[in-house]
Task: inverse folding
């Protein structure tokens, strides 16, 4: 049973517009949520994170929103750039250990 | 600062053969992780080390997979014997500590194909 779900396998956005990537989770014990970006033939790269005591975290063009009651988080990228085209993974961790539970990823394509 | 190094980058073997992967984490990082990423899936944790001790290996198929981290630095992951379903990218990651929410740094991965 998947504890972290990314229900959209792909997303296509025009350059300059907003990209919204969604993630749902089932385990209420998760304390931290992280987004990773992955280019082909490379390992995932950390993008932004949020702890469960917050509902928003912003870093430049990237903002993550957390809705604990709905067990839902989203990553907003504004404005989207062609270099943002990659696979985005939502991940969660909790308890006493740092191991991450990943979703299946969403492939973002930003068209010029 | 050098990133996480992994080798080899690609490996093709026949089923029932053995294979080993090597990982060198970022200097000073106490925690090391091995993940398995099957095509179309997110990475799945196989084993987590804190220095040279195992913290979590609950999802490691211990009948065929083994891992060690000698001297708390480099690590090797071995599969013996390999099965077709082991075809995946094996990712090594490291972090300063193993606390939840701490950023993990990933290596480029080793793509294993079992024929």
Result:
């Amino acid at each position: 049973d998947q504890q972290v779900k990314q229900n959209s396998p792909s997303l296509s956005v025009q350059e300059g517009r907003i990209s919204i990537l969604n993630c749902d989770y089932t385990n209420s014990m998760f304390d931290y949520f992280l987004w990773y970006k992955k280019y082909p033939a490379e390992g995932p790269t950390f993008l932004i994170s949020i702890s469960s005591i917050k509902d928003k975290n912003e870093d430049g063009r990237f903002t993550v929103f957390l809705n604990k009651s709905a067990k839902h988080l989203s990553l907003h990228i504004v404005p989207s750039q062609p270099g943002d085209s990659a696979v985005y993974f939502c991940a969660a961790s909790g308890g006493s250990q740092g191991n991450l539970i990943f979703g299946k990823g969403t492939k973002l394509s930003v068209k010029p | 600062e050098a990133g996480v190094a992994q080798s080899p980058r690609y490996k093709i073997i026949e089923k029932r053969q053995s294979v080993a992967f090597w990982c060198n984490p970022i200097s000073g990082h106490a925690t090391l992780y091995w993940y398995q990423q099957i095509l179309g899936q997110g990475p799945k944790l196989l084993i987590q080390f804190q220095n040279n001790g195992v913290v979590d290996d609950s999802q490691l198929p211990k009948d065929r997979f083994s891992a060690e981290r000698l001297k708390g630095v480099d690590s090797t992951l071995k599969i013996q014997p390999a099965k077709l379903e082991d075809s995946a990218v094996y990712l090594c990651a490291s972090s300063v500590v193993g606390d939840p929410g701490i950023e993990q740094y990933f290596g480029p991965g080793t793509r294993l194909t079992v024929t």
In short: The CA atoms of residues 78 and 92 of chain A lie 23 Å apart.
